[in-house]
Amino acid sequence: MKTHPLLYPGWAVLLGGLLWTGARAGDDTPPAPPPAPRPHRLQPHEEIPPLEGTGWHSLFDGRTLKGWKITDYAGHGDVKVEDGNLVMEMGAMLTGVNGPTNLFRTNYELVYDAKRVMGTDFFGTVTFPVGTNCCSLVLGGWGGGVVGISSLDGMDASENSTSVFLDFKENRWYRVRVRVTPKRLQCWVGKLEVVNELIADHRITVRPGEIEMSQPFGFSTWVTTGALRHIKWRSLD
After folding, report:
1. Cβ(102)–Cβ(202) under 8 Å?
2. Which residues, at least 6 apart from 159, have a Cβ–Cβ distance to it below 8 Å?
3. Which of 31, 29, 28, 6 is nearest to 18 (CA)?
């Protein structure tokens, strides 16, 4: 007994595809947007954890900008010391400071406290060396909550595997810690580890543009007033 050509498996698949395409052609419902990153809610007791380890050296005296210089971003806001804090005021775009250089390239830890005083974007982004290259840990970017490394394999913090979303509160301090070893890059906000990447697996760079002026070590904000305090580093050698 002969089988009708439309009943062969190949024809059945083709017919099903045509019917589905026709149904979609008459369906003007827009596709569902991708799910937003799931926010990690920081608990108050996690914001300022104790400083672990020994051998920490202070990079900011809490009184002056000695050892720091204002980054020459176009349209930057003022930078000043106020109530023991290093304050980067809102500018047209980026505002920032460059810190002491040649202190560290690898095998070190960096820690600081940051808070968003006013604005809705990143308020304590740090650019730092990773061996012979540099990158930035974005703190509260892309509308106020994105945290991650810019850049990883040419992708911004909002695009690569380090991207997370944190619910930052205005005028609240957050402890940030960065650890760079020859093999691994790690970052924490409070007690939450937000970055843990093997350096050899990635191309680590700074995002092209004005943020390159923050190299090799500096802090910056974007149309936001941010404050810093307790900026310290230590060698892991």
Report:
1. no
2. none
3. 6
DSSP state of 137: E
Give the distance, in angstroms, between the CA of residue 219 and the centroid of all CA atoms in the same chain.
12
Paired tokens of 112: 């600081």
As a whole number of angstroms, the distance between CA 210 and CA 222 comes to 11
Q: Which residues contact 95 (CB under 8 A, 6 or more apart)?
A: 71, 73, 76, 77, 78, 79, 88, 89, 220, 221
222 pairs with which residues across the strands? 94
Q: Where do the domains of the chain lie, and which CATH numbers do they carry?
A: 40-235 (2.60.120.560)
* Cα–Cα distance, 88 to 6 (Å, whole number): 71
pLDDT tens sequence for the chain (237 residues): 444 333 333 433 333 443 334 443 444 555 555 444 555 555 555 568 888 899 999 999 999 999 999 999 999 999 999 999 999 999 999 999 999 988 889 999 999 999 999 999 999 999 999 999 999 999 999 989 999 999 999 999 999 999 999 999 999 999 999 999 999 999 999 999 999 999 999 999 999 999 999 999 999 999 999 999 999 999 998
DSSP 8-state assignment for residue 163: -
CA–CA dist 232, 217 (Å, integer): 13
